[in-house]
Amino acid sequence: MNPDTTLPAARRSDADWWRDAVFYQVYIRSFADGTGDGVGDLAGIRDRLPYLADLGVDALWITPFYPSPMADHGYDVADPRDVEPVFGDLAEFDALLADAHALGIRVTVDLVPNHSSHDREWFRAALDAAPGSPERERYLFRDGRGPDGSEPPNNWPSVFGGPAWTRVPDGQWYLHIFAPEQPDLNFANPEVLADLEETMRFWLDRGVDGFRIDVAHGMAKPEGLPDMVPMDDTGLLDDHGPGDRRFDQDGVHAVHRRIRAVVDEYEGRMAVGEVWVSDDERLAQYLREDELQLAFNFRLVTAHWTATDLRDAVVHSLATVSGTPAPACWVLSNHDVVRHVTRYGGGEVGLRRARAAALLQLALPGAAYLYNGDELGLPNVDLPDEVLQDPVWERSGRTVRGRDGCRVPMPWSGEKPSFGFSATSDTWLPMPEEWADLTVEAQAADATSMQSLYRAALALRASSRAFAGEGLQWLPAPDGCLAFRRPGGLVCLVNLSPAAVPLPEGQVLLASADVSGGEVPVDAAVWLRG
Ligand code: GLC
Annotated catalytic residue: which of 232, 265, 281, 446? Predict the structure, then answer.
């Protein structure tokens, strides 16, 4: 193991800066709008870099900003090596990267290998070409079943609802695990892999520090595309039972080895995978020394607010990485899930728990990903039907509302929507009037705000030796509480019991609630130097 792994991030060597970095996910449409059209963009991010530096994050993950017809808000990429005009241009990206680096912030970008947009030149060429042509071989075109081929080639459902196959005029079908506007690419075709490598080099040569890899467990499909039995749609999460054949096929690891080989050609770059695989051993395979450096562990996302669930999440996440070179990688929220303030009960209770969860997440050894707005304690928003944009809403026959509620733009300042997000109040998703108290500006002035808690936590994490070391030792704790110690001496206690518990011995570094009475209140967490 590299001797540097015992040091906090600020003292890390450049090569493995990501091991305990705090990444900040910028959902580009919703972070900051620099051009006044109601949609966030690169110029907006660039304007707000001083805020991010001041908040204390080490790196950004910027969600896709590539040319796209926006069927899935950018995860349908028409050209992986350019910038969507709504978001800016390549010069703006280069300027953002230079400014971020000057402020000591690293920048990682999304890589979307599993599928392209139906608007990508490749797919248009495939539609114009004949069955069996090299153009069709870049995607997964198949003949249908039934006497006239009018039934899909297999029974796979799309994650967004409806079948995963769409028929084209000459009678063939193409596979799209997500929306029909997102045809799956054929990774058995060397041209597809070569193109991915070209995309990686394009961004690495510009100076990006790494990638977040979308649906990183999806690129390889099982031989012969067999039916799923049963054909229950497990969403993105594959339990690797015999059922869901769409994800986590063994062949995907060859793709990861190629990805890693390219990353390793460049000094100090990294890749984190979106791997919705819940089995510890299956997930660990993605973290072998020649594959991903990090994989999101979504167990904190799926855990309920109970000591058993949260402890289980931590134990499994650490067990996953224990036999690999990787550190754990903690996530509470992202652009695909209900925000954790709401998951934990919403309102005052949700906020209180989210404060404690922040201290739990940031005390754990490894890398941490914050989602924009976590630091403001933003809740999910109940949006009216007529503004919903997530493809899930229409494809589910308007039965599943989709992910728009966690994607509402960030409130920055002022008393009324768009709260400084944009020059227009007509934002791509409407912002709730009652967010005036949640703005960055309002919270910066309040020492008890969620933002102030994050600032203090990130500053301590970056500077204190108490956070050194990647291990974790569980400590005895009252019923319903979690307590652990890091090798550097940090002690974290989270009280999930129904009553206040005594404050442990030690110097209090930070607390999510008032502990001055010598007790840790319900739904609170405390950091101590033990
Ligand atoms: C990932 C993204 C999600 C997107 C899907 C298809 O899960 O996080 O937002 O819809 O992939 O690209």
Answer: 265
Q: What fold is seen in the domain 470-529?
A: Immunoglobulin-like (2.60.40)
Helix (H, G, I), strand (E, B) or coil at 328: coil
Looking at the CA of residue 334, tell me the nearest atom of ligand 1.
8
Domain boundaries along the sequence of the chain: 9-114+197-382+444-458, 115-184, 470-529
Q: Whose CA is closest to 468, among 327, 331, 321?
A: 327
- Is ligand 1 within 6 A of the CB of residue 72? yes
184: β partners: 115
Question: Is the Cβ atom of 75 under 6 angstroms away from ligand 1?
Answer: yes
**What pLDDT was estimated at residue 229?**
82
Residue count (the chain)? 530
Instruction: Report the alpha-carbon distance of residue 254 to residue 288 in Å, rounded.
Output: 12
**Of 185, 250, 252, 241, which is closest to residue 218 (Cα–Cα)?**
252
Fold of the domain built from segment(s) 9-114+197-382+444-458: TIM Barrel (3.20.20)
Distance separating alpha carbons of residues 16 and 209, to the nearest angstrom: 11
Whether 348 is a known active-site residue: answer no
- What does the alpha-carbon distance between residue 163 and residue 153 come to, in Å, rounded to a whole number? 10
191 phi, psi to nearest 5 deg: -65, -35
Rounded CA-CA distance 181/186 in Å is: 16
Identified catalytic residue from 72, 214, 280, 470: 214
Give the mean pLDDT per block of 10 residues along the chain (530 residues).
Answer: 42 80 98 98 98 98 98 98 98 98 97 98 98 98 97 94 95 97 98 98 98 97 91 65 80 98 97 94 97 96 96 97 98 98 98 98 98 98 97 91 97 98 98 98 97 98 95 97 98 98 97 98 96
pLDDT attached to residue 9: 45
Centre of ligand 1 to C-alpha 396, Å, is 16
pLDDT at 234: 67
Give me the pLDDT at residue 245, please.
Answer: 86
**CATH number for the domain running over 115-184:** 3.90.400.10
Tens-place pLDDT, residues 225-245: 999 987 777 676 655 455 688
User: Ligand 1: does its nearest atom lie under 6 Å from the Cβ of 244?
Assistant: no
Ligand 1: residue whose CA is nearest its atom 7: 215
Is the C-beta atom of 331 inside 6 A of ligand 1? no
**Contact present, 372 and 26 (Cβ < 8 Å):** yes
User: Burial of 517 by CB count in 10 Å (0-12 exposed, 13-18 middle, 19+ buried)?
Assistant: exposed
Active site residue 47: no
In the prediction, which pLDDT does 3 show? 39
How far, in Å, from the CA of 12 to the mean position of ligand 1?
32
Do domains 115-184 and 470-529 share one topology? The answer is: no
Give the tens place of pLDDT for each residue, 26-44: 999 999 999 999 999 999 9
